[in-house]
Amino acid sequence: MFRKLLTIEEAKNVIDENFKPTQLGDEDVALLEAYNRVLKENVVSTMDVPSFDRSTVDGYAVKAEETFYADENQSVALNISGMIFAGEQPKMVLDKGEAVEIVTGAPLPEGTDAVVMLEDAERVDNQLQVYTAVTPYMNVMKKGSDIKSGETILHAGKVLGASEIGALAALGLTKIRCIKPLIVAVLSIGNEIIEPGKLLTAGKIFDINAYSLSTAVIECGAKPIFFGIVPDDKETLRKTLIVALSSADIVITSGGVSVGPYDYTPQIVDSLGKPGVVISGVAVKPGKPTTVAFVQDKPVFSLPGNPTAALLVFYLLVRPVILRLCGRTPHDMQSIRAFAGVKLFSAKGRRTFVMVRLVLDVEKSRLVAEPVGEASGAITILTIADGFVEIPENQQHINKDEEVSVRLFRQV
Amino acid sequence: MFRKLLTIEEAKNVIDENFKPTQLGDEDVALLEAYNRVLKENVVSTMDVPSFDRSTVDGYAVKAEETFYADENQSVALNISGMIFAGEQPKMVLDKGEAVEIVTGAPLPEGTDAVVMLEDAERVDNQLQVYTAVTPYMNVMKKGSDIKSGETILHAGKVLGASEIGALAALGLTKIRCIKPLIVAVLSIGNEIIEPGKLLTAGKIFDINAYSLSTAVIECGAKPIFFGIVPDDKETLRKTLIVALSSADIVITSGGVSVGPYDYTPQIVDSLGKPGVVISGVAVKPGKPTTVAFVQDKPVFSLPGNPTAALLVFYLLVRPVILRLCGRTPHDMQSIRAFAGVKLFSAKGRRTFVMVRLVLDVEKSRLVAEPVGEASGAITILTIADGFVEIPENQQHINKDEEVSVRLFRQV
């Protein structure tokens, strides 16, 4: 088993080397439920959208060339031969010298190729005076100009938002083939941990990590399976991990990874399949006792019990893997420039992540990054923090007022 | 009825003047389903977290003052009087000169106030040599240091993410009182519009806007009620709007707002209650024929039928209102600096929004904003666009290579 502490970049490289994208299944999803889902296949249109030349204004459908000499001083006279409403199929064919009244969205009749806007013409009974020249297809949305038959309108892997779902509706689709959600097993390890809602007995604490990590999984667009709490018992843990691995695409545990006599999670994970544990400890603070294994191509992340550390390592190492397995592009966390509110210290030889909240310094009109407590494992730190400042391994501190980049947990 | 075109800022002000936050109901939500929900009430802790002094390391619980003179050269000798596991309630009380082995997460026994780390001591049978001094509460998470009994840990209005749900679990909660989702009625108006999945007959187009706008509503954390398509018929529209207003907190229609003979949406909305229509047209391109009304304090947005325009006006005017009604902070859309790929033209006297996609210019190592088609109403434009460039009312164009700010539809 690997025992050297890796830097965060080394850890990411080791994960990349062992990473094999899972082939997730697929399922049909109703269009109105497909928000934020990932498209399984390319979507190729079998129709033109619109399927006819469509007026984009209220006015008069004409043959453009008959208006070419019209201007404010010299109108062109046309006979109005009827009216076309939206949703109708016009049956008339226009002759020379004819125009037809048309509303927005209605199809142009045969013999016309442009629309003169209401305000550019004057009507007296069935006589129209056109005061402006229109070019062919002016004020017309041509057949197929939005989507052409045979055109690929969306590509496999696209994450569906408002405009994508609108485009699918434009093709008349009511459901769409999406990648099935990635299943992530989440479990907390420890005899001291008790399920929320139960009676808190002496020496126990309520489970935090299974809840915060499951929510972080949901935030990635994946689906957590909540395995709850596993006591510090080798055989129970081994059996639970086997079930978790068989029912999920990825497993996240927290707790049970330090050097205590009851911390045998890494050994058990390592025994479950090849290549087993590939990362044993990461040179970060907080989060050092992080173990990463691959068991039959499935990643198993064993995170520290400290809730701040567990969630931080989730964001740094686990989230990118989940997003890639889901077929989503792992975006970097958003950053913002700020200035250190106090001197920030690092842990010797370890990449240090200082949780900070952003405060506006009105006088200097700039954002100040204020640390929100030591990496003590308090979950409340993260509810207050807006993000974190990173201090490199080879740097001992960041001075007060020094410019820093704050990586944000959520948009400010 | 108001007939002057308003600028986008004037429109926002008129909305603000008429805006009355709805009192949304509340409901209990299971913790694991509470992601992205809005907290109804302050959460006050009724307990200390942790509820006991807790070791944060594996080591030996001691009385700190007995180690004050220990260092690498001069160890302090203590008798080991047992071991404490996590999840146990220690029954022993330590005397002078005594230490007890303790694992991470276990409670400190009476008579101790600090923990010496495993690597800072040496054990031979029950004799311990301590090689480092510890100060009181070193390597200890004190009772109540994360959360104190009586402390407000989260405030009403907080949007629940991973760390907030973790903090609620820390209190032993299994459900939490949240604001009920805002209900938004979405309907499309027009005889030419047909529901996806049905047979497309001549002169018809499939409904796009009800789908794209419903999805945009979901994206805001609100709940769309899909009213589908209403034909161009005054009485049907009036009746549908009355039902929509009685069942939803806000109503969004699209189509039927230009000057055509069949566009009576604004008149009907205006007749339904006071103050009625407050905005009739906004000086933007695309999106000019936008109508905003308030009917018995409920906002009714009548958006253009053009899918690009409808979604753009949704992002500019409707989204901030939905977010405020939901009790969420309306964040500005994220912006990014880029350079105009070609000369961009504006519509005379109207704020013009040019849909662009971002392309990396490797040679100049900068982002270029390329326009992705005219504001022609093509829904595909928005599936390609990364965001838009805004050209002010009094500006006629933006030159090629000029620096621009691109407001992003989604994170790039």
**CATH class value of the largest domain in chain A:** Alpha Beta
Judging by the overall fold, what is the CATH architecture of the largest domain in chain A? 3-Layer(aba) Sandwich
Oligomer: homodimer
How would you write the strand order of the largest sheet of chain A?
Answer: 7-4-6-5-9-8
Nearest-integer average pLDDT of chain A = 92
**Which structural class matches the secondary elements of chain A?**
alpha/beta
Question: What does the secondary structure layout of this molecule look like, with pairings?
Answer:
The structure is a homodimer of 412-residue chains.
Chain A: H1 8-18, E1 26-30, E2 43-44, E3 54-55, E4 59-62, E5 76-84, E6 98-102, E7 114-117, E8 121-124, E9 127-130, E10 140-141, E11 152-154, H2 162-170, E12 175-179, E13 183-189, E14 193-194, E15 205-206, H3 209-219, E16 223-230, H4 234-247, E17 250-254, H5 265-270, E18 275-280, E19 284-285, E20 291-295, E21 298-303, H6 307-325, E22 335-340, E23 344-345, E24 351-361, E25 366-371, H7 379-384, E26 387-391, E27 397-398, E28 403-408
Parallel strand pairs in A: 5-6, 13-16, 13-17, 14-15, 17-21, 19-24, 22-25
Antiparallel strand pairs in A: 1-12, 2-11, 3-10, 4-6, 4-7, 5-9, 8-9, 18-20, 20-21, 22-28, 23-27, 24-25, 24-26, 26-28
3D architecture notes:
The structure is a homodimer of 412-residue chains. Chain A has 412 residues and is an alpha/beta fold. Chain A folds into 4 domains: 8-24 and 181-325, 3-Layer(aba) Sandwich (Molybdenum Cofactor Biosythetic Enzyme, Chain A); 27-48 and 152-179, Molybdopterin biosynthesis moea protein, domain 2; 54-141, Molybdopterin biosynthesis moea protein, domain 3 (Molybdopterin biosynthesis moeA protein, domain 3), CATH 2.170.190.11; 335-408, Beta Barrel (Beta-clip). Helix content of chain A is 18%, strand content 32%. Chain A contains 7 helices and 28 strands. Chain A has helices spanning 8-18, 162-170, 209-219, 234-247, 265-270, 307-325, 379-384, and strands at 26-30, 43-44, 54-55, 59-62, 76-84, 98-102, 114-117, 121-124, 127-130, 140-141, 152-154, 175-179, 183-189, 193-194, 205-206, 223-230, 250-254, 275-280, 284-285, 291-295, 298-303, 335-340, 344-345, 351-361, 366-371, 387-391, 397-398, 403-408. In chain A, the strands form 8 sheets. A 6-stranded mixed β-sheet of chain A has the order 7-4-6-5-9-8, with no helix packed on it. In chain A, helix 3 packs parallel to helix 6 (307-325). The longest helix of chain A is centred in the last third of the chain and has 19 residues, at 307-325. Chain A is elongated.
